[in-house]
Design a protein that fits this description.
By secondary structure, this protein is mostly beta strands. The chain is 6% helix and 61% strand.
């Protein structure tokens, strides 16, 4: 929004040109002199004049005060038709007592028709009016005549005064000259009774400002004596190749002739030298004692447009107000109702084929100005209220299109150098929307927002700097607070590494802070993230918008939402279970692209009755694996696993609890590998070994949601403990179909079983049956088969 001091000054200067200040001062002051001269002169010319004389002088006084003095080189006595003629007339008009004012009227010939009460100047008439300031401070005298700078000169011809109507008229050229201006008009009428002076047509006033010429044209002008108002029709001013116009304008004058107010109505139009244009239906300008603007009111639809080969800007509002400090320094601007300003940069730095568009809309827009380093007013802040919307769109030939929309009940922009937005603060129903060309979007809402921009250099050829538009500025950081919600929608055709489509993300928090450089979104205050596959809460969550990765700290709680249609997008299962998978931990790292998640700090994961507890739990969505192990930093290294399964030939619901140092589970293989001091506790016994493998039966409809251990293989220093007996060997195989444990060893160290009744028995294989609690000993030196039974 390029609202520069220069432009506003030009606009006000253009309106001020319509003042015709000096013209109004002259006419207002002169009408008093002309009125008395017009009323008194005809009668006096005929008083007691009975002869022709050379060097005629006549004065009239009242109570010792001279009212006027007439001097003529020759007087011709009244003729038979009632006419009298004065030649080479010089008339001095004296102001009221104490005013020290003297005005002079010169004319070659005057003719007076006493019968009809008409006085006519047969030649040119010149009037020298003394300025009020000079007359009060320093009266003129023979030794000190009025200085040229204190005198207003008027020249007219064909002047006719009618005593009965009080009208003085001319249809010829009227010219006037002031110390700093001059002008003319064709035809004039002065109504001495009503105090109204009318300039018929072709009104022209020429003046200068700082050495630059200024011209005002009007088709018609009127000055009212009593109200001290000047009316102009079809007024047009030209100043430094700039033009302003209006259907009509009114100038309100003070007693000293200076202007205190200007109003303009109907097609108020200004064209600046660079081609920028502004229009409104009404304008009202208040002026101080030095005729400098203090306030400008614009109404009836305010429009502005400016464009060139590199940029285009247009704005509109229903009405506006502009205020100034003493010295006509721009202080504040306000635009109201349906406010919209659009700035389009047609070329980007280092990208001549790119473009950037910045738009702000609101019910009201307030702009504060302050003197800059060059002492010129510079926009400092802009406040948009009432459904404020800031839209930033960048179309680059080298990168995807960027669209950002910022909404709030109120937006406050802090400007850098009066050119670009440096900071944007919003309150009330704030929303930031970023939409990409591929269909992806990011939407965040909150009670308040705080955005910082990183300004970039504007084009070197930029003709008029923008006051409100961020131009090519990009968001550096953005923060929202209070009931924050976020929604991230992936691109329409986006795919994950496993070929699946990414899911939309939703998040809530008390506070959200975003950094564009790192693409990091930090959520605090009970944050929650849900992407359709996982629901995550923690004390803080760092979410990387570019990658989708997330890091959670403190009281982490995650739930993987399992569904058949989303099996590959979930965490899989815990030993064949189905339904949501829950995890708690002190810290979590979730990698979006790979689907890997790492939970640390006494993590616990469970699904129905199945559970895993470990210092570290790693999940892979794409591989559908689970890894549990100790922390490399030391501390507890034990992994606890709980498996709920139908055990034995009787398919009794049982729980197996396993302790180990590590666990690797692959859901695709339906296999869990336990390693390091493995202890598996089942209802019918305890298995200890160096390592163990648990195999689950293939998933089927009849077992949906229910784990079913198919086989257990334990190796390395295997010990099977059951009530009253203990078996030892190198390997133990459990099969659920027959409920048998087969314990084997090596030739050098065969398996053995010890119980209170039979002592120690060895063989090539020891078979434990869960149906009758018997043990079969197979092989040995005698190759005999021995059955033993031990009570439970």
């Amino acid at each position: 929004m390029r609202i520069t001091v220069k432009r506003l000054r030009y606009l006000v200067a253009a309106l001020a040109c319509l003042l015709v200040v000096v013209l109004g001062g002259f006419l207002l002051y002169a009408r008093y002199r002309i009125r008395h001269f017009g009323k008194d002169l005809p009668g006096k010319l005929g008083v007691n004049i009975q002869q022709t004389a050379n060097g005629f002088t006549y004065s009239q006084s009242d109570k010792g005060h001279t009212i006027f003095t007439i001097h003529a080189s020759k007087l011709v006595q009244f003729k038979g038709d009632g006419h009298a003629t004065l030649h080479d007339v010089s008339i001095t008009l004296y102001g009221p007592p104490g005013s020290n004012r003297e005005d002079r009227v010169y004319g070659s010939d005057f003719d007076y028709d006493q019968k009809n009460g008409i006085a006519s100047a047969t030649g040119d008439v010149q009037i020298d009016l003394q300025s009020p300031q000079r007359s009060v401070s320093q009266p003129a005298s023979k030794d000190s005549p009025p200085a040229e700078k204190d005198t207003i000169h008027v020249k007219a011809s064909g002047v006719v005064f009618t005593q009965k109507t009080g009208l003085a008229t001319t249809n010829q050229l009227v010219q006037f000259r002031l110390p700093n201006a001059s002008g003319e008009a064709v035809g004039a009428t002065f109504d001495s009774k009503q105090g109204v002076l009318v300039l018929d047509k072709q009104v022209v006033l020429t003046s200068s400002s700082n050495g630059e010429p200024s011209t005002v044209h009007a088709s018609h002008a009127q000055i009212d004596r009593d109200t001290r108002q000047v009316f102009l029709l079809n007024a047009q001013s030209d100043f430094k190749n700039e033009r302003s116009s209006a259907d009509q304008a009114t100038v309100y004058l003070r007693e000293d002739g200076s202007a205190q107010r200007i109003t303009a109505k109907g097609n108020v139009h200004t064209v600046l030298s660079g081609g920028a244009q502004s229009t409104s239906q009404a304008a009202d300008v208040a002026l101080d004692n030095q005729s400098q603007p203090t306030q400008v009111q614009l109404a009836g639809g305010v429009n502005f447009i400016d464009s060139d080969a590199e940029q285009s800007m247009h704005g509109n509002a229903v009405e506006g107000t502009i205020t100034f400090t003493p010295g006509a320094v721009l202080h504040h601007a306000q635009f109201r109702d349906a406010v919209s300003f659009v700035d389009q940069q047609l070329k980007l730095p280092n990208d001549p084929h790119g473009s950037a568009t910045r738009q702000i809309t609101a019910s009201k827009l307030d702009i504060d100005f302050a003197p800059g380093p060059d002492k010129k007013a510079t926009a400092q802040k802009a406040l948009a209220t009432g459904g404020a919307v800031a839209t930033l769109r960048t179309i680059s030939s080298k990168a995807p299109e960027e669209n950002t929309t910022i909404r709030a009940d109120q937006l406050l922009a802090t400007l850098a150098g009066g050119r670009a937005i440096r900071q944007l603060d919003g309150s009330g129903h704030t929303q930031i929307t970023e939409a990409a060309q591929d269909g992806s979007s990011n939407v965040s809402t909150g009670d308040v927002l705080h955005v910082l921009f990183t300004p970039q250099a504007a084009p070197a050829k930029a003709r008029v700097p923008s006051q409100l538009a961020a131009q090519t500025s990009q968001i550096d950081t953005a923060g929202q607070e209070g009931n924050v919600t976020l929604a991230q929608t992936p691109a329409k055709n986006a795919k994950m590494k496993d070929g699946s489509s990414p899911l939309p993300l939703h998040a809530t928090a008390v506070r959200a802070e975003y950094s564009a450089g790192s693409q990091l979104l930090k959520l605090t205050g009970n944050p929650r993230i849900n992407n359709g596959a996982v629901d995550l809460t923690a004390q803080t969550v760092d979410y990387h918008r570019d990658t989708g990765d997330a890091t959670a700290q403190g009281d982490v709680k995650a739930t993987y939402l399992h569904a058949e249609s989303q099996r590959s997008a979930s965490a899989g299962s815990v030993f064949g279970g189905q339904g949501p998978v829950h995890i708690i931990a002190a810290q979590a790292d979730l990698q979006h692209s790979t689907g890997d998640s790492i939970f640390r700090g006494q993590a616990r994961m469970w699904q129905n009755a199945n559970a895993v507890t470990a210092p570290v739990i790693e999940l892979s969505r794409t591989q559908q694996t689970l890894k549990a192990h100790g922390d490399s930093k030391g501390g507890a290294q034990s992994v606890g696993t709980t498996i709920s399964s139908l055990m034995g030939t009787k398919r009794r619901q049982s729980v197996v609890r396993v302790q180990s140092r590590t666990l690797n589970y692959a859901d695709r293989d339906r296999r869990g590998d336990f390693d390091g001091d493995v202890t598996a506790v089942a209802p019918d016994g305890t298995i200890r070994s160096d390592r163990a493998q648990f195999f689950l039966q293939p998933e089927g409809p009849q077992k949906a949601g229910q784990s079913q251990i198919d086989k257990i293989i334990a190796k390395g220093r295997v010990v099977l403990s059951q009530p009253g007996r203990k078996g030892e060997g190198d390997q133990l195989v459990y099969t659920s179909t027959d409920g048998r444990y087969v314990l084997t060893g090596t030739a050098a160290s065969p398996p053995r079983i010890s119980d209170a009744a039979h002592g120690t028995t060895t063989g090539s294989a020891l078979i434990f049956n869960d149906q009758d609690d018997s043990v079969e000993v197979s092989g040995g030196q005698s190759a005999a088969v021995t059955k033993t039974r031990a009570p439970k």
